[in-house]
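BUG: 3D viewer hangs when loading the predicted structure for this chain

Environment: internal workstation, default settings.
Expected: structure renders.
Actual: progress bar stalls at 90%.

Input used:
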Amino acid sequence: MPNNSFNPNPLRSTNNMAGKACHVVGSTTQVGLTQALDRSMQDTWHFVAMEYYALILNRTYLVSVGATGIAGKVCRGLTAVASGTGLTRYITSQLAVHDNPNDPSSYVSDHSLAHQNNADFTLKYDDIISVSFNPNKKWGMGPYPHDGRVIITTPSKEREFIILGNQSGRDITDRISELMERAV
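Structure tokens produced before the viewer hung:
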């Protein structure tokens, strides 16, 4: 029997969590997002992942995976752990995730999704050299639960996506690899 958890109905409620293989963040925003990123991406599924940049900064993506490629939309800016005192505590508290950190949708900000960001990306499978999974935890993630890292290599760069919350990095990697093989 096919695993339909990777083919969510994009009109479901905001917290559409598919089976244990890969959790999916869904909302009515998802329909517009998918259409805006690539109208040819039918049967699209999603995952939420963080990427570090400029050594210590981070941003979170809602990553759409479809038949022709992968598209990422920044869905949250800098994320931190609430710590310190006074002004430091105030600032880090503003950057912390306050909902259930195991729920990938807790990392998605509708405000961020609604705006264009220069860090948004689209990768066609033809442009991807490899996709691999590193099951090791990422240093510096503090109390935020994550399931290793999906590494996507293109001719120009290697992107490391930290899989946030209750999602399977191995299953995400395997599913992307299957779609890449079909696209050849």
